[in-house]
Design goal:
alpha+beta, 7-stranded mixed sheet, 16 helices, 6-stranded mixed sheet
Length: 1047
């Protein structure tokens, strides 16, 4: 079946106008420096026209593929001659008629198709397309991938993230012998460009027009509508000519942006500046360069910023390219930037850490300095919230007394003072120290962590702008969508909450069928764009992944369907000039035999109805109807020493078996009979004799004796034949007078039952043992199961005993007899557990209903877990529980701080414990867990580390080390409440019963640590937790919680 796919059904893009009045466009003729040698071969037109090969059920069609192709060639040649004659009588065509760009914007991994159309009288050996990436001096070239009737198709693949950016199509080069002609598109009025992961405002097509030629299209204008066939070949498609004429004569023929575009709120432009690049690697540390990490952070920041509807983000570089400081700000000016954010990483002495931001000083245009300060603080807040040490925000004035135009002292950093002079705030964000081990490990060591930094930057920028995703607004005329940073979505598609909507020039959301730039879409009653099948007014339509209504053949899954020119799915008979199809009641294309209205028809692979041909042994007439009872005749044909078998319809079998007069024969790829040889059509060997007949049973040849089963397949391995057992080696030859494992076959190949070799046995050599097999071999560097037990032998075959072995990536233990152990294993150095396969267990494992934790290396660390939530295990009454908490404190020998006796609301340790009980039980958290953690973190309220006693912070909330004091609270109760809420965040997904006072509550992965033992990040299966120190939660239970249960 010959199907046609339209090139991106935008009619304005698909139409290729050949105006008779257009003048020739001259190129720049350049003599080549030397003769160009090329192996490029122009294909004859007859080679371009191909017909898809159709597969029959059993035999080929009556007509050969070659005959069909010759017929088509004759038709096309005569048509082409007529077209040439018609054109010769009229005005000569221009050299370049149009440039077609399939996608104005595409993603990484997609392929761009560009078509350049020339007059048919072009004479060239080779044509190449010239294109250039924005901000790059390199002009790139690509060769023609397809051509038809003067149209040259170029395909460009963009597989890598480094390919992101805007590309300009510069022109084409035409090579003819030793000369080359260069066509510069800008010089002839074509401004064609497209973006890869970049928003690119460009018309999808550039059409060459003479400035003096009227834009009105009359009946005298020649119109050629092109499409791509299934193989991507360009072909003439006259089926849409009528709709094309209609579109060309409409008012908005090729307009991509209407007058109403001006009413749309312009995007808020932000320029991100990934520091360094190219030969400038920036700071180095921990095996990486600053330039590589800043580029990733910027790309992640860009991704999150552009999720906001009316923000447009540009980057000063999108790959590893060097860009000067002046060029960076100049670029921001050229795109009308509102903000300039330069992304960097710090380095000093491997000890310094944290984040800081530089902003403009208050001199000269102080408003820019003020805005820069607000922006800097907003971003710094987000970075600190991630856990980065707060180094603050700063200005840095000129070190050589450079001044602004008003005479005031200028800023130190070029991108900051240049941005200020350009009229917008510029800041420098130093995210972390690349040479600090802690900063690198926590914030820079993976793409996931870099994405968190990029997201934090974006969040800070958006909070500075007060931006959000916008909201719906309704008035009497319908629904609109307003961006949070101003303006309504107008004359565009917008992705909102996962659905596409379209807003007209007045900003109203469209519903129903709607035509956008020549492409029809359907929006449901809520305005959501339809994708896939959609039933409208009791008929089905199909919309592709971009929402465009489809016509013609579509294959959404594994089945073809046909949609008429109105997009309606068809059923029943479908007749074209040269071919007929049938679509069942679901619209699916029918293949194979099908009864329809009492008659039987056959539809080939591809769906076309067979006519006047044989389908296997069945015949269908010129109307495609099966004629019952009609049979064909076949015959052998001898050609020299070769034979082939001609079917009644003239076809013959190739590369396959055929059963003839009850016997099987095999024919090679050319249809010749195979004789006196082995054949292997699939994965099995067969033998055909001198007459070509497939053999079965015993086969005696010079090289050996074989056996072929009832299907003719060569037998390998053991086989019982006529009551006797034989062994056939790999390759099929029968074994004779030899041992097969522990079994013996005699000189006739027959297995002798009961005959055995010497038995396998253990051999002791001094203190060593090995296991000799019956044939004298032995196992090396591997396991062997002997008498139901597993043993391991080293590289020399000696048995390993009373030791650990690690044959692969897992440890096992063998006892003094060499037997592999399973279950609990108690050794002097510790207790271990080996699973049912003998493998050493590490980490958490439920054993006999009890959760156990095994350290790296397998030693048992703890058995059983303590839940954070639930009823206290210290007693059933408040007094009982408080008594034990107080007793635990007094047992520690510490004195209750005098400071708390005066301030904070708990004059005694008992009052302190009562507050813990009240706050913990209010949230269903065990009081002993809260008390134990508070004692561990504060050294029984003695403090002495980063957190100070007056902060009322009893769990180190927000204290990340290196002098960071963490959070402060108003009194003891608020501090305890924050600790309880933070524990509940880890242990449960239940809501809080009090207002949240824990400022870090939102950062917790809720429910990730239901047990105290899981509060340590290293011991938590979810890799989340309270503290990074090793065995934090286990230590808390053993030293602070469990002792209370014994009081």
């Amino acid at each position: 079946m010959k199907r046609r796919k339209k090139i991106n059904k935008r009619i304005c893009a698909a139409v290729m106008i050949i105006a008779m009045g257009l003048s020739m466009i001259s190129g720049t003729r350049v003599l080549a420096a030397e003769e160009m040698n090329t192996d490029t071969k122009r294909e004859d037109e007859s080679e371009i026209i191909t017909q898809p090969e159709e597969t029959e059920v059993t035999n080929p069609e009556t007509e050969t593929k070659e005959e069909t192709i010759n017929e088509n060639i004759d038709k096309n040649i005569s048509n082409d001659d007529k077209i040439t004659e018609d054109i010769a009588l009229e005005v000569q065509k221009p050299m370049i008629q149009y440039v077609y760009v399939e996608k104005p914007n595409l993603q990484v991994g997609e392929k761009q198709k560009i078509v350049v159309s020339f007059s048919e009288n072009i004479d060239a050996d080779e044509v190449v397309l010239l294109y250039q990436k924005e901000n790059s001096s390199d002009v790139l070239e690509t060769n023609v991938t397809n051509e038809e009737d003067g149209a040259k198709e170029f395909d460009i693949l963009f597989p890598n993230e480094s390919d992101m950016g805007t590309y300009y199509i510069q022109g084409v080069k035409i090579y003819n012998g030793s000369e080359e002609i260069v066509y510069n598109f800008k010089e002839i009025g074509i401004d064609a460009k497209f973006g890869v992961e970049e928003y690119c405002e460009t018309e999808p097509d550039a059409i060459v027009e003479n400035a003096d030629t009227s834009t009105a299209v009359s009946d005298e204008v020649g119109i050629s509508v092109m499409s791509l066939d299934d193989e991507g070949n360009i072909e003439d498609n006259t089926e849409v000519e009528e709709s094309v004429n209609k579109e060309i004569n409409s008012e908005n023929d090729l307009a991509v942006y209407s007058e109403n575009t001006e009413k749309t709120a312009k995007p808020y432009v932000i320029v991100l500046d990934p520091g360094h690049g190219g030969t400038d690697g920036g700071a180095k540390g921990n095996g990486v360069n600053e330039k590589d990490l800043t580029l990733k952070i910027a790309k992640y920041c860009k991704k999150y910023l552009e999720q906001q509807g009316n923000i447009k983000v540009y980057m000063t570089r999108t790959d590893d390219t060097y860009v000067g400081l002046t060029e960076r700000v100049d670029y921001a000016m050229s795109v009308n930037a509102k903000l300039f954010v330069s992304i960097h990483l710090n380095a000093f002495d491997r000890h310094a850490q944290g984040a800081e931001v530089y902003y403009p000083n208050a001199n000269y245009q102080s408003d820019i300095g003020n805005e820069g300060k607000l922006l800097a603080q907003s971003i710094q807040n987000e970075l600190v919230a991630l856990g980065l040490y707060d180094r603050g925000i700063h200005i840095r004035n000129s070190g050589n007394n450079s001044t602004y135009p008003d005479g005031s002292l200028q800023d130190y950093y070029a991108v900051i003072w240049k941005s200020k002079r350009a009229g917008f705030p510029g800041i420098i964000v130093e995210h972390a120290f690349i040479d600090n081990a802690n900063d690198f490990s926590s914030f820079l060591s993976s793409d996931e962590k870099l994405e968190r930094l990029g997201k934090a930057d974006a969040t800070g920028i958006l909070k500075y702008l007060g931006a959000g995703k916008g909201e719906w607004k309704q008035d009497k005329s319908g629904w609109k969508y307003q961006y949070s940073i101003g303006g309504f979505a107008t004359n565009k598609r917008e992705l909102i909450d996962g659905y596409w909507y379209y807003f007209d020039e007045s900003g109203y959301r469209k519903t129903g069928f709607y035509n956008i730039s020549g492409v029809k879409y359907y929006f449901d009653e809520d305005g959501r764009m339809s994708i896939g099948w959609k039933k409208v007014n009791n008929v089905y339509y199909y919309f592709n992944a971009s929402g465009a209504m489809q016509t013609g053949w579509v294959k959404p899954y594994d089945t073809w369907y046909y949609l008429n020119q109105d997009g309606v799915m068809q059923t029943g008979w479908l007749r074209f000039t040269d071919v007929t199809y049938y679509l069942d009641e679901s619209g699916a294309l029918v293949e194979g035999w099908r009864w329809i209205d009492g008659k039987c028809y056959y539809f080939k692979s591809g769906g076309s109805m067979a006519r006047d041909t044989w389908i296997g042994d069945s015949y269908v007439d010129k109307d495609g109807v099966w004629i019952k009872g009609k049979v064909k005749e076949n015959e052998w044909v001898q050609v020299g020493n070769e034979k082939w078998y001609r079917h009644a319809d003239g076809s013959y079998t190739r590369s396959n078996w055929e059963k003839i007069d009850g016997k099987w024969y095999f024919f090679d790829q050319n249809g010749w009979l195979k004789r006196s040889c082995w054949v292997k059509p699939y994965d099995t060997w067969y033998y055909v004799d001198s007459e070509g007949v497939m053999q079965t049973g015993w086969l005696k040849l010079t090289e050996g004796t074989y056996y072929l089963d009832e299907s003719g397949a060569l037998v390998e391995g053991w086989r019982w034949i006529d009551g006797k057992c034989y062994y056939f080696k790999s390759g099929g030859s029968m074994a004779r007078d030899t041992w097969i494992g522990d079994s013996y076959v005699d000189k006739d190949g027959v297995w002798i039952e009961g005959k055995t070799k010497n038995q396998a046995k253990w051999i002791q050599v001094g203190n060593e043992k090995w296991y000799r097999h019956a044939d004298g071999s032995y196992t090396r560097s591997n396991w062997e199961k002997i008498d139901g037990k597993w043993y391991f032998f080293d590289q020399n075959g000696w048995l390993k005993r009373s030791c650990w072995v690690k044959p692969y990536d897992t440890w096992y233990y063998v006892d003094s007899e060499g037997v592999m152990q399973t279950g609990w294993l108690k050794l002097t150095e510790g207790t271990y557990y080996l699973d049912e396969s003998g493998a050493l267990v590490e980490g958490w494992r439920v054993i006999d209903g009890t959760m156990c934790y095994f350290r790296s290396g397998g030693s048992l660390r703890c058995k059983g877990v303590t839940t954070i939530m639930g009823t206290s295990g210290l007693g059933t009454t408040k007094n009982t529980v408080v008594d034990k908490l107080e007793k635990m404190y007094l047992k520690s020998g510490r004195i209750y701080p005098a400071y708390y006796s005066q301030y904070g609301g708990a004059a005694t340790i008992r009052e302190f414990c009562e507050i813990i009980y009240e706050e913990a039980t209010d949230e269903n958290v065990k009081p002993e867990v809260v008390f134990g953690q508070a004692m561990k973190e504060t050294g029984y309220l003695q403090f002495g580390r980063d957190v100070q006693i007056e902060q009322f912070n009893f769990a180190g909330l927000g204290a990340t080390g290196n002098g960071v004091h963490g959070n402060s609270f108003a009194n003891i109760r608020e501090g305890i409440r924050a600790q309880v809420q933070h524990l509940k965040a880890y242990a449960s997904k239940d809501s809080l019963n009090h207002d949240c006072v824990d400022v870090r509550f939102g950062y917790v992965n809720r429910g990730s640590a239901p047990y105290v033992e899981w509060l340590g990040i290293k011991e938590n299966p979810n890799k989340a937790g309270w503290a990074a120190s090793s065995e934090y939660g286990i230590d808390l239970v053993e030293k602070y919680i469990s002792p209370m249960y014994k009081l």
